[in-house]
Design a protein that fits this description.
The structure holds 3 protein chains of 3 kinds.
Chain A (H helix, E strand, L loop, with lengths): L4 E5 L6 H10 L3 E5 L2 H5 L4 E3 L5 H10 L2 H10 L4 E4 L1 H4 L2 E4 L5 E2 L4 E7 L14 E6 L1 E2 L19 E6 L1 E5 L5 E7 L2 E9 L2 E4 L7 H12 L2
Parallel strand pairs in A: 1-2, 1-3, 3-4, 4-14, 5-7
Antiparallel strand pairs in A: 5-6, 7-11, 8-10, 9-12, 12-13, 13-14
Chain B lengths: L23 E9 L2 E6 L2 E7 L1 H10 L4 E6 L2 H4 L5 H10 L4 E4 L5 H10 L3 E4 L1 H5 L2 H10 L4 E11 L2 E6 L4 E6 H10 L4 E6 L11 H8 L6 E4 L5 H9 L5 E4 L1 H4 L5 H10 L11
Parallel strand pairs in B: 1-4, 1-12, 4-5, 5-6, 6-7, 7-10, 10-11, 11-12
Antiparallel strand pairs in B: 1-2, 2-3, 7-8, 8-9
Helix pairs in contact in B: 1-3, 9-11
Chain C lengths: L50 H11 L3 H15 L8 E4 L4 H12 L5 E6 L6 H12 L4 E5 L3 H15 L4 H18 L3 E4 L32 E2 L2 E2 H7 L15 H6 L3 E4 H4 L4 H11 L24 H12 L3 H11 L5 H11 L8 H8 L3 H10 L6 E4 L2 E4 L3 H4 L2
Parallel strand pairs in C: 1-2, 2-3, 4-7
Antiparallel strand pairs in C: 5-6, 8-9
Helix pairs in contact in C: 3-10, 12-13
Classes of the chains: A alpha/beta, B alpha/beta, C mainly alpha.
Chain lengths: 215, 275, 404
């Protein structure tokens, strides 16, 4: 049986190497590409990303990949957005000026609050390990990429903006920063977004990558 | 705003209005050539052993991040950690910061391509602060860690040192860190030359003076002798993370017990169970 | 034309393993030291490896350190006292080497040492702090001996002007303070730290545990030469008497024979590693490295207690073409702390650094002007080592050029 294939969209934004290594460690064969046809034909696709929302969308547009990614969603190809890649899945972001996203999961991207719930200032970006918690019952992770994760396990975050899906049913996991709840994992149909970096979250993260490979 | 309402503390007996501060436990590996080394006051460097062996041990103990510093880079004019980082990236899946001898955006690119997640810059940034902005612009602020070596020169006054503690600069640490962060540094790695290698605890006054001035995370480095030292520098100094070297390399404590001490004091730490 | 001064080897070569050159002078009997003296220098074998490196290989592979330690214990057993009297004299400054030597003799081997210090010309702040900690933290008894400053300064000045060797009075004093105090306290055993032979003196000296009596004994004191002058001439010219020279006059050879005073090196019995001495001193005697590196080298913990010290190394650079960084690096290369490549880079970076920090203090101490300082220094630049280019002095041969 040949190794499961993962295509990682290389649109010039972010460090793809870690993502590649993470998936390879889990036994996948990884291709980094911006070729629309290749991406469309893929069994599963990863949208990574680090940096500014506006730059990222611009890069995707220039490479004609916006349409491609939307098509993937229509075809129900498993799609994983990581960090900025997750934020791009939403309708729009308020970073700098309001910028349109891919619109695959309803909602918007806003700043991580600069103050805690108690009104004290907190550091931005949110950097570090935070515990993942399900919304509602722990069982709710069963059909998601988090199905092998136990509530409370930690993953690694580094971000200044956060996604707020409009529909609570699209929130799969949350973490907390300064008392505020942050959407850690979101999903809809076969699209999943992780605000944290599964490729940098030790064994917990690798479990998520493995789950993605067998989708 | 965020999904409203109060926070339900997940399984902890805390007042619902308590907000827990998360901290990171970082292992710092000073490297010279093929070796992990350690000194006192950044001098008298002893060979400890294999970087990969120690890094892997810390990863398996549940360390939050790793920092690799090339100690001879400024002598040779460049960073030689590419190979070490590449090989670490195969087995280690937590963030890695690499510093020492990073002089240009090209140097930073090379190191990030080898597998690093962030670069730490000291000497070159002091010589040319614009480098901070260039790296932040190209790779994002979260990739650009400002590394500062601080030596106390008076009450509440510290001077910036470079070249692994060998050269003075006459720069004031507080002025410099404000400038560096304004240029785009997303994090500060603050090393006390006075405390490092001494196991006498962190220079809490130094850390406090810096955390009071910047809004980016500050990693305290230099002087950790026992797990309790961490509490002092986090609770009184405001550190967001601690970088540990001597205590780990000489096997005086394991990450697990340090984490337990932090948790017992009510700090938020990575939830980790050794598999 | 390019005549080598001091009888130094005409051709300059660098050791293939460490960074030292064949110009490195061996230790002299200082109180016979005249300007016209031809220097003995470190030996190189026909593979281009220096004596110190060869000896180091012996140290690593051919010496049974268990046996050596056993001989140490036997020696100490013969001298150990339990009646409260001192049984061993340890000369030193409280730097890493003497801190290690004195502490390990007392707390590991059960001796009752009296440490004796020949005062530095001018204490540095860190030097004084470490000196105090040696006693307060290390738990050590000490006698600090400071010689008559007027004479000491005069001798330093003369040594600088006549020999370009300002450290000479200190070296004389340091070498004899041990036996001198042993004589006064009725103690027979003196223990220094490392044997300078390890760094390139006559290698045969490495195989004896004891210091040659020639270094600390003399026949007729008036025939001693200090600062390049006979003592009797100094007495005739200046307002000093033979009494003033007492601190520089070692016990007579007869006296030492009669009282069986022996001067040993701990480095013969225990494998010597300066960096490990540093760690030991930090952990046991409150020793602290300097916060800034010493000018002329990269080191922060070697020989940091005397403001004049840098000028010892600076004048060594002038006379022999090798600076402090080279000395420090050579030793660390042999001990496996750094590679030769790193040593070469360190020498290139730091060797020729001028010691600005205490320059004014030095000029004041020996009462000369800056111009006269440079004039004197230039007289000692051998043309086989130095040449002038665009108004600057440059070395003809450096280890970094040879290494390219």
């Amino acid at each position: 049986m040949s190794a499961p294939e993962v295509v990682v969209i290389d649109y010039g934004v972010g460090n793809l190497l870690s993502v590649q290594r993470g998936f390879e460690h889990c036994g996948a064969k990884v291709t980094l590409t911006a070729d629309p046809e290749y991406i469309l034909a893929a069994k599963r696709v990863v949208l990574p990303g680090v940096g500014a929302f506006g730059n990222a969308m611009q890069a995707l547009e220039q490479l004609c990949l916006v349409k491609v990614i939307r098509e993937l969603a229509l075809r129900q190809t498993p799609l994983l957005g990581i960090c900025l890649g997750m934020q791009l899945l939403l309708d729009e972001s308020e970073e700098f000026a309001v910028t349109a996203g891919l619109g695959l999961i309803p909602g918007r991207v806003i700043q991580v609050p600069k103050e805690t719930m108690l009104g004290e200032s907190q550091k931005i970006p949110h950097i570090g390990w935070s515990s993942l918690q399900p919304l509602g019952c722990p069982d709710s992770w069963r059909k998601t990429l988090l199905q092998d994760i136990c509530p409370g396990e930690s993953t690694y975050f580094v971000h200044s903006f956060m996604a707020v899906p409009t529909n609570p049913i699209h929130r799969i996991a949350e973490c907390e920063y300064g008392g505020h709840l942050i959407a850690a994992t979101i999903g809809r149909d076969r699209i999943t977004g992780c605000q944290f970096h599964p490729e940098k979250s030790g064994e917990v993260g690798l479990k998520i990558l493995r789950q993605f490979i067998i989708q | 705003m965020a999904s409203g309402g109060c926070v339900i503390r997940f399984g902890k007996n805390l007042n619902e209005w308590d907000v827990v501060k998360n901290i990171r436990l970082i292992a710092r590996l000073d490297i010279k050539g093929p070796n992990l080394i350690k000194g006192i006051h950044l001098e008298g460097l002893r060979v400890i052993g294999s970087p990969s062996e120690h890094a892997l041990r810390y990863y398996l103990q549940g360390v939050d991040e790793l920092i690799y510093m090339d100690c001879v880079a400024s002598l040779y004019g460049r960073n030689h950690l590419g190979d070490i980082v590449s090989s670490a990236a195969k087995d280690i899946f937590v963030p890695m910061t690499v510093g020492g001898g990073i002089r240009s955006v090209e140097d930073a690119t090379q190191i990030l391509r080898a597998g690093a997640d962030k670069v730490a810059v000291n000497t070159a940034a002091v010589a040319n602060p614009l480098l901070i902005a260039e790296i932040a612009r190209r790779f994002g602020s979260q990739c650009m860690v400002l590394s500062i070596e601080a030596k106390q020169v008076g009450p509440e006054r510290w001077e910036v040192y470079t070249e692994n503690g060998r050269e003075r600069t006459s720069l004031d640490v507080i002025e410099w860190v404000k400038r560096g962060v304004s240029m785009g540094a997303g994090e500060v790695l603050l090393t006390s030359v006075d405390r490092e290698g001494t196991r006498k605890g962190f220079d809490t006054a130094l850390v406090k003076a810096v955390t009071a001035e910047v809004s980016v995370p500050v990693i305290a480095s230099g002087g950790m002798g026992k797990p309790k030292d961490l509490l002092e520098v986090v609770c009184n100094g405001g550190a967001d993370a601690v970088a540990m070297a001597d205590i780990l390399h000489y096997k005086r404590a394991e990450i697990g017990e340090i984490r337990a001490a932090a948790e017992a004091a009510g700090l938020g730490v990575r939830h980790y169970e050794r598999t | 034309m390019k005549e080598a001064l001091f009888g130094l080897p005409q051709h300059v070569i660098f050791c293939r393993q460490c960074v030292i050159s064949n110009q490195r002078p061996s230790s002299t009997v200082e109180f016979k030291h005249k300007l016209e003296e031809m220097k003995a220098t470190i030996g190189f074998d026909n593979e281009g490896v220096c004596d110190a490196c060869r000896y180091h290989q012996v140290k690593e592979k051919q010496i049974s350190w268990e046996k050596r330690e056993q001989s140490l214990i036997e020696l100490l057993d013969k001298h150990r006292r339990s009646d409260g009297g001192y049984d061993i004299i340890v000369p030193g400054s409280g730097g890493k080497d003497s801190a290690y030597t004195s502490h390990v003799l007392k707390y590991k081997y059960g001796m009752n040492p009296l440490t004796v210090t020949w005062a530095p010309h001018k204490y540095t702040e860190i030097g004084w702090k470490n000196f105090e900690n040696w006693m307060h933290v290390g738990g050590i008894d000490n006698i600090l001996f400071t010689p008559n400053g007027r004479l000491h300064r005069y001798l330093t000045q003369q040594a600088f002007l006549n020999l370009l060797h300002p450290f000479q009075p200190f070296i004389v004093g340091q070498r004899i303070i041990g036996p001198l105090m042993a004589a006064k306290f009725g103690v027979n055993l003196v223990m220094y730290g490392e044997n300078q032979a390890e760094y390139g003196n006559n290698p045969d000296e490495n195989y004896k545990p004891t210091m040659d009596r020639k270094f600390f004994s003399v026949g007729n004191p008036e025939e001693m030469i200090l600062g390049g002058k006979l003592i009797k001439n100094i007495i005739a010219e200046k307002n000093f008497s033979l009494n003033d020279f007492a601190p520089y006059i070692p016990p007579s050879a007869d006296y030492l024979e009669r009282n069986e005073v022996e001067v040993h090196y701990l480095g013969y019995y225990l494998k010597w590693d300066p960096q490990e001495c540093y760690y030991y001193a930090v952990e046991n005697t409150g020793f602290q490295a300097n916060s800034e590196r010493t000018e002329g080298t990269y080191s922060k913990y070697s020989s940091i207690d005397d403001q004049i010290d840098m000028f010892h190394y600076y004048t060594t650079l002038i006379k022999f073409g090798i600076g402090r960084a080279t000395y420090d690096a050579a030793q660390e290369i042999r001990n496996g702390k750094i590679t030769r490549k790193e040593g070469v880079h360190l020498a290139q970076k730091y060797d020729q650094e001028f010691p600005h920090k205490y320059f004014k203090q030095f000029l004041e101490y020996i009462d000369i002007t800056e111009d006269f300082f440079h004039e004197t220094v230039d007289k000692f630049r051998s043309s086989h080592l130095w040449f002038r280019e665009n108004g600057e002095w440059r070395l003809r041969h450096t280890v970094w050029q040879e290494s390219q």
